[in-house]
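=== Given protein ===
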Amino acid sequence: MSLFYCTECKSLYRSDAGLMKEQSEESRVRWIDCLFWFTALVLLFGALGVRGLWTAEGRWAEITREMLITKDFFHPLINGHPYFDKPLVSYWLIALTAPFTGMNEWALRIPSAICGLLALWATRRIGARLWAPAVGRLAGWILLTTYGFMFWARTGEADMANLAFILLAVAWYWRRRDLPNFITYLIFYVLMFIGAQMKGLTAVIIPVLVVLPDLLVEKRWKHLFSFSHFGALVLGSLVYLVPFLYSHGTAQGYASSGLDLVFRENVQRFFVPFDHIEPWYAYFKHVPVLFLPWSLILLVAVVAWIFSPNWRKYSWHSRWLGIAMALIFVFFSASGSRRSYYILPILPFCAWFTALFLLAADRSPWRRVAVGIQSALILLITLAGLAAAVAIPPVSQRLNIPIPGLVSLALAVASLLSLGSWVLVWISRKGLSHATGIPLRFVPLLATTVFFLGAYFCVIQPALEGFRTEESFALEVKETGRTAEEIAFYQQSLENVVFYLDRAPPYHPVVSNSLEAWAYLVGGPNRVVILRRRDLPALQQDFPLEAQGYVAVGEQVFGWDKDKKIGKKMVAWGLDDSL
């Protein structure tokens, strides 16, 4: 018996009732696919550009903005200073989007959302090819409704693009592994190296790592010793190297090197980490968080797979999946530098694994327990959401925290829709399963997750945007009419603020210490220095005692903010009160 083999999956599209029944089945499949892609579009693109920049998003936003100003797309800058922290293609995707949306949060995040769609497509294709169409569909739903996938597909950085091209390369391998020719090799390498130009060499390492077991066990490695393979490898490598080489050859005083970046970010960080240092067991915590709300079922599936007495009889594709997941996990754990989002490429593999476990034809007690507990948790979340919707208005009024009414409304709607899915399952019997292409007992689990993720990302986050004050602070400084030369930064540029100030060169000065700040402020009228409140004592330590300074513009402080949070708030500090 193969691992988690699903007889329903294999027979889903087969019909002996003639052409009419086949046409009806094809129509049903199209409806199922349309429902999935419509849901994906809403979840990934809904209110995508409403929220302000989130932490590191400012790097991609400001680098791309300055590329569009300077028309130099090979030498990344932040506030006029070299910043070759990531490869170039992720910036180019944003630059290609900007003419249609303007250089704003929409342009920043649309490439990630599109790459999320590509990742979903590849997940469904690989699941259908290696196991069955139902496995691909369910894995697609599971991946779409994981917190880690949704968060990073809606974030304007390079992580989702990296994941998408890893999956596209793996999908291409499984489609063409029996056709070992030049085109097969070339497209495989091009996909990997484009992915590497998004973020780093993990886009090359992970596909090679996960296809390696199949190459070895099926003895396909013998085909690699050919001129067509080596020629494709050389051409594919050029896709990765040429932008770096061109950037290096046209540097003309540009002080940062993309080739140095490759070594620093992909070799040094792995063996001799200089930041992002976490304990070796970090991914035992990060993967379950990224895979929420399906982590419990995944854990039970892994335990069932490990302790199954018949694992040697599992199909090769199922054994390959378990091996691939282990290799990915071990690779990222072996690195000295660890962060939760580094291991995002494991999520589709977890989705296939979970889908196979849920769709297995055997009557596994593991699955009954896992689905029962998951159903109870999902129902509890639904009831908690409904209770929160009722409790938030009086609690916010009592605590004097102006929580927007949309928060309660979104929670109430999501909870009621979720309860409605349970009711529909109870009264529809097989009809709902037939309409969605998902086994009946899983419909409420997926529906509840879709409703709450949609409420959170598309309604609640935008509604709470008023409590994030970085953008409003930067725009208030911008509205004072000061030029770039009249707005300096203390010690380092704050890229999110630089982006919202939206000044063309000359760039904002950066003062590194108190003496430089004093010389800057007295060097002309109307000047301010932007810094965080906690750094004000250091800024003023070398100022004359009689110097009178003031906060020209301050980031809003709320009554409930703690001292630590207040210290992180920004101010534009000057020596006089002229605006």
Summary: Residues 7-358 form one domain. The chain has a mean pLDDT of 89.
